[in-house]
Amino acid sequence: MEQVPPKPCSLSALPEGSEVLRLPRCEQVALQSLFDNDSDLYLAFRDACIEQFVHDFQLAAALLAAQQDRAAFSRLAHSLKGVLNTLGHTEISPLAHALQLEAARADWTELQRLWLELRARMVAAFGLDALA
Length: 132
Description:
GO molecular function: protein kinase activity
Organism: Serpentinimonas maccroryi
Oligomer: single chain
Protein name: Chemotaxis protein histidine kinase and related kinase
GO biological process, one term: phosphorelay signal transduction system
Number of domains: 1
Helix content: 55-70%
Keywords: Kinase, Phosphoprotein, Transferase, Two-component regulatory system
């Protein structure tokens, strides 16, 4: 099956100062390839994800403190892996995947290390300084 090349990105046609133009290149690629250049949809999805990250960060902290629910930690990591890929952050999603795999082993020290690394990368990627 022949792969159809993505449509040319129309980001340059956006007005000066558009929020989309300030997105990292990886997110612009996701906007183009996964959201068919629908910037309103992408930005609404991105905003909803960032709002959810607050809850995800709290859940991860609680799970790490309790050190007893590997399945919940695995589900959280799996969700983050998918969301990060959808938002275009394919350079960060492997950390979420590693976290998901580590959750099956329940090495809580390693889970903590991986979580802190993933969290720091997410904070930097999405400008979540207020959540840090």
